[in-house]
Design the sequence.
């Protein structure tokens, strides 16, 4: 920093030294279309390299996104001494093995959700973090968005009385058997892909872990992935109920019900980066909506916020936005829901 009188002015060199140099494993759509462009707009992130098992794909993505380095293998990227952190958007079954390899190469890791195929896998990743001393976090970007932080703030302040119930829905339609979301052995299916969101946000808002859970799963007769899943989570302070589907009309909504009010998150998960987001706070005085107050949030990109917060944690020694301990607990709930669907009973995470 340069000091002039009582003011501190940051030079371009200072800003560049602050930024964490990131490498990206793979050219997944979420990476090239959403996460990389968002992180490139951040104050703490520099996307320095991208890798693919197909060198041509890596070169194409690097050219399209103005990334300085392209590698034809993940190993080559992990061997680059200039790369400090890795973003891992690979298919679910590759999250743990390649995140462990990145950690063993001395790289911090931001891994896409769900962080593993089950809680036992996630614990192996936790062991790798302890062994290597790097930071590893799960990319639940929604936890960094101002609308969710505000919703939690309102709940904790008692704006809706005592929180007793959360209701969620998340769906899209995709029946392409070649899509990784529809390959069961790769961790496909609605519960893993999108059911993890209402589970995670319910835990976030309640600030508790569910004592027991129950689920219904309907599987696609050909692909055997769950295409319709409903879950009930029994928390010490209340209940959360959600439905998710990979073969229904696209829709998403989360509602938080208290003894004196209700909060509705309009677009809870795929929050747009080109228009304001809104939550609705209802005092329950009128079923036609006269008691609803709308809170709007300025345009922002939750992927930019996530990347900057993780990078700051690296530079400043803080905690990842969604640390592995939280990721393990989320995976344990998913495991218990799958077990419940098979047993027909309440199961304990």
Sequence:
């Amino acid at each position: 920093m340069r000091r002039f009188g009582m003011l501190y002015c940051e030079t371009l060199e200072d800003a560049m030294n602050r930024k964490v140099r990131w490498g990206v494993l793979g050219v997944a759509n979420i990476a090239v279309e959403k996460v990389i462009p968002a992180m490139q707009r951040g104050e703490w992130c520099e996307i320095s390299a991208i890798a693919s098992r197909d060198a041509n794909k890596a070169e194409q993505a690097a050219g399209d996104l103005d990334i300085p380095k392209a590698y034809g293998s993940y190993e080559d990227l992990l061997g680059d001494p200039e790369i400090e952190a890795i973003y891992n958007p690979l298919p679910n079954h590759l999250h743990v093995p390649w995140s462990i390899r990145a950690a063993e190469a001395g790289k911090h890791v931001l891994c896409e959700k769900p962080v593993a195929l089950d809680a036992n896998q996630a614990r192996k990743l936790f062991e790798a973090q302890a062994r290597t001393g790097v930071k590893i976090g799960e990319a639940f970007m929604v936890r960094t968005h101002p609308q969710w932080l505000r919703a939690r703030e309102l709940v904790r302040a008692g704006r809706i009385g005592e929180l007793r119930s959360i209701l969620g829905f998340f769906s899209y339609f995709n029946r392409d058997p070649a899509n990784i979301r529809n390959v069961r052995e790769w961790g496909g299916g609605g519960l893993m892909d999108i059911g993890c969101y209402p589970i995670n946000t319910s835990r976030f808002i309640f600030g508790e872990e569910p004592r027991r859970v129950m689920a219904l799963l309907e599987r696609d007769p050909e692909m055997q992935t769950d295409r319709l899943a409903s879950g009930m989570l029994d928390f010490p302070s209340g209940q959360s109920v959600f439905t998710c589907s990979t073969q229904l009309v696209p829709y998403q909504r989360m509602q938080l019900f208290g003894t004196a009010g209700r909060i509705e998150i309009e677009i809870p998960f795929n929050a747009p980066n080109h228009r304001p987001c809104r939550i609705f706070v209802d005092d329950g005085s009128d079923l036609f909506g006269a008691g609803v107050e709308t809170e709007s949030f300025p345009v922002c990109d939750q992927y930019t916020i996530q990347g900057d917060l993780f990078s700051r944690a690296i530079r400043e020694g803080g905690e990842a936005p969604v640390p592995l301990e939280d990721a393990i607990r989320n995976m344990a709930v998913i495991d218990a829901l799958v077990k419940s669907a098979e047993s027909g009973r309440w199961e304990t995470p």
Summary: The radius of gyration is 21 Å.
